[in-house]
Write a structure and sequence with these properties.
Helices cover about 40% and strands about 20% of the residues. It has about 425 residues and is α/β, with parallel strands linked by helices. Strand 10 and strand 11 (about 225-235) form a beta hairpin. Helix 6 (about 200-210) packs across helix 12 (about 375-395) and helix 8 (about 275-285) crosses helix 9 (about 290-305). GO terms for molecular function: DNA-binding transcription factor activity.
Length: about 425
């Protein structure tokens, strides 16, 4: 949001009233009186000022079982919106949400590919161009124009503390896709842009609106072409001194008496879902499907049909994943380890991992992802939503959790562009 459109700091009473309005989705003056403890004149003045400035609007009437009807108020356009971006190696996911968590939009910009295709470092020019066009279209919408309040970009790399917050003015200091996104945002937004590791974002989504929402800690194990873990304890991300916490690819492997010399990325090669896919395809060159999930389903079908080869292949991979889960549990002791990626979408595989891990760690609980393929972009937009509340409401930003919960129940369809 540009400085001339960025809201002048709201008075404390208005921030208090607006916070409760965002937290409840819609409210009335009597409800605000009860919730805030403010006097009736203070509530009336705050609501009138917020309505006049475009932060709240009327939305019908509430007719209680007893008592007088009351005007309903909800957040209006001036409150603004938050943006999350998942910058993958071959795709870009965009998600926008208003600060009440009611109105969200999601678009995935990608190109079809095969799991055995060479791994890209960044999306293609075609994907970048379409994502930038979509981003500009969103920012030009009348209800969103010059009202963007927070941006988080999830990136597949280590993000140290010195780079965690950048701005659109830093585009020339960044490279590739991040620089292109910052340049695209520059015409519409001049606030801070948060960079966050993509697996950390997935962990945030699973913690806030997924399987971890009822526990204080979790480890999110991402199994795809690459491997990594996002760790949350006491509700907070664990990043480490250099932003490298959870970088399982850095674990030396193998690590046992008599084992050959450890290789730096051998653990990632061992745990990556692409290894399972490649092993299966080598013996089944005509297997249909283009995604890791397609191949996993083919393996499970072969196992169900009695294939000893498929079972041996799956059992070996399950044992390795189970040991990785046990290693995470031994160091972090989370309430739950969530398996992400398309491996985590297969309940049979998750159950097999839990069974293999149980004899090795009595406290370990393994689960598949509830959030699924949207985990990274959802985590990014959740972080932006929380930041937007903090920036707008200051000490009264106590209802971001309600907005996040509301977002989790109103997820949009997932069009492919």
């Amino acid at each position: 949001m540009h400085d001339d459109a960025r809201s002048a700091e709201l008075p404390p009473t208005q921030r208090h009233v607006l916070s409760h309005t965002l937290g409840h989705g819609s409210t009335t003056r009597p409800r605000l009186l009860a919730a805030t403890g403010l006097s009736k004149p203070s509530v009336n003045d705050a609501v009138s000022s917020l309505e006049g400035a475009g932060y709240v609007r009327r939305n019908g009437r509430h007719v209680p079982a007893t008592g007088k009807p009351a005007v309903l108020f909800e957040a209006a356009d001036e409150v603004g919106w938050a943006l999350g971006i998942d910058l993958g190696s071959s795709h870009i996911e965009l998600m926008a949400v208003d600060l009440a968590g009611v109105d969200s939009t999601h678009v995935s910009v990608t190109e079809p590919g095969r799991p055995d295709a060479p791994r890209r470092r960044e999306p293609s020019t075609s994907v970048m161009d379409r994502a930038v066009e979509q981003l500009a279209e969103w920012c030009r919408r009348p209800d969103r124009l010059r009202r963007l309040r927070a941006v988080t970009i999830a990136v597949p790399q280590i993000v140290d503390a010195g780079r965690r917050q950048v701005s659109t003015a830093d585009a020339d200091r960044e490279r590739g896709a991040v620089a292109a996104l910052l340049r695209a945002l520059a015409a519409h937004y001049d606030g801070p842009v948060r960079l966050e590791n993509n697996v950390n974002c997935s962990a945030v989504a699973e913690m806030r609106i997924g399987v971890g929402s009822a526990v204080p800690s979790l480890a999110y194990l991402q199994l795809g072409v690459g491997v990594g873990a996002g760790i949350i304890t006491e509700g907070r991300l664990v990043r480490g001194a250099h932003g490298a916490a959870g970088e399982l690819s850095r674990l030396p492997f193998p690590w046992a008496d008599g084992a050959e010399q450890a290789s730096r990325y051998a653990m990632e090669d061992r745990l990556a879902a692409s290894r399972l896919v490649d092993s299966y395809r080598s013996g089944n060159p005509g297997v249909p499907g283009s995604s890791i999930g397609d191949v996993v389903r083919s393996i499970l079908a072969d196992v169900a049909a009695g294939s000893a080869e498929a079972k041996a292949l799956l059992d070996e991979y399950v044992r390795d994943v189970a040991r990785a889960c046990v290693a995470l549990a031994a160091v972090v002791d989370p309430d739950i380890v969530v398996i992400g990626g398309e491996i985590g979408d297969a309940p049979e595989v998750v159950e097999a991992v839990q069974a293999a891990a149980r004899p090795l760690h009595e406290f370990l609980v393994v689960s598949g992802s509830v959030v699924g393929e949207l985990a990274t972009v959802l985590g990014a937009v959740v972080l932006s939503l929380e930041e937007a509340h903090a920036q707008l409401l200051g000490e009264h930003a106590v209802h971001a959790t309600a907005a996040v919960d509301r977002l989790g129940t109103t997820l949009p369809p997932q069009p492919r562009k």
